[in-house]
Design brief:
By secondary structure, the protein is of the alpha/beta class. The two termini are 23 Å apart. The chain contains eight helices and seven strands. It has helices spanning 14-37, 40-53, 69-76, 92-104, 143-153, 173-193, 198-207, 212-221, and strands at residues 60-63, 85-89, 111-115, 128-134, 154-165, 225-232, 237-243. The chain is globular and about 45 Å long. Strands 3-2-1-4-5-7-6 form a seven-stranded mixed beta sheet, with helices on both faces. A hairpin with a 4-residue loop joins strand 6 (225-232) and strand 7. It has a single domain (14-243), classed as Rossmann fold. The structure holds S-adenosylmethionine.
């Protein structure tokens, strides 16, 4: 899986550094996310939600929920129809922003926000009807234990859906996206978030992260079956899913 890319170059573990970074940028995360993607991230989340929708899950676990955008969009798109979504994240700063949004939208009875580590989640085995994670797995300190714990807490036959950046291969998306991701985003990201590293860590972490067959292979090693991938926008992002 290559070298471990961390946000800061200090002694703390990747987990601690990632939590610190997201605490630092929580106030500007939503704005920058939608600004940089021109809203395309919402479309991608919707595509991932549509894959889950076919399964009609009652309870959903949204891992690395951050400010809750994936969970909120899911409810907006009618998923689950009546059950609950549990959002889990390691950064309390991100969760706090999410909790405010959920209260404002009167959805506190539909979405629970829980602080915790994806590698050791505070849930019993076979609890949820489905699990999902958007732009989260790349930040895990250890990818495999994270995917394994998601496998552990879903019921047999339940689906795990992962939305994550991948690397576009085709001209000119590859070149244009590379310039945008490595030059434009770090410049404006630093300006707005005031965290000098957060938006240089982003392209570095995508570069170092397994994609395509490699990622599917890791899901398989974690126990998932019927694993599939759908590339988005020429491979800028991918949706992976697999069944327990
Ligand atoms: C880029 S944000 C994605 C947030 C949200 N899913 C979205 O689509 O906007 C990544 C999130 O992963 C969380 N995260 C990273 N490592 C984690 C871990 N080990 N356990 C739980 N959450 C983690 C971070 O705190 C951060 O909120």
């Amino acid at each position: 899986m290559g070298t471990k890319v961390t946000p800061y170059s200090n002694e703390a573990s990747k987990k601690e550094q990632v939590a610190e970074m997201f605490d630092n940028i929580a106030h500007s995360y939503d704005f920058l996310n939608h600004f940089f993607s021109l809203g395309i991230d919402k479309l991608w989340r919707k595509k991932a939600i549509n894959i889950l929708k076919k399964e009609n899950p009652g309870s959903i676990l949204d891992v690395a929920t951050g400010t809750g955008d994936f969970a909120l969009q899911s409810i907006k798109n009618g998923l689950p129809l009546s059950g609950k979504i549990t959002g889990l994240d390691i950064s309390n700063g991100m969760l706090e922003v999410g909790r405010k949004k959920i209260t404002k939208k009167n959805l506190s009875d539909r979405i629970d926000m829980v602080q915790g580590d994806s590698e050791n989640m505070p849930f019993e085995d076979n609890t949820f009807d489905a699990t999902m994670v958007a732009f989260g797995v790349r930040n895990f300190q250890n990818l495999k234990p994270g995917l394994q714990d998601m496998y552990r807490v879903i019921k047999p036959n339940a689906l795990c859906v992962v939305l994550e950046f991948s690397k576009p291969k085709v001209f000119p998306i590859k070149q244009l996206f590379g310039f945008y991701f490595k030059k434009i985003m770090p410049f404006f990201g630093k300006l707005v978030s005031k965290d000098a590293r957060a938006y240089t860590y982003l392209p570095e972490s995508v570069d170092a992260f397994p994609e395509g067959e490699a990622f599917k292979g890791i899901m398989k090693e974690c126990g998932y079956r019927e694993i599939e991938q759908k590339m988005l926008f020429g491979g800028v992002a991918s949706i992976y899913w697999g069944r327990k």
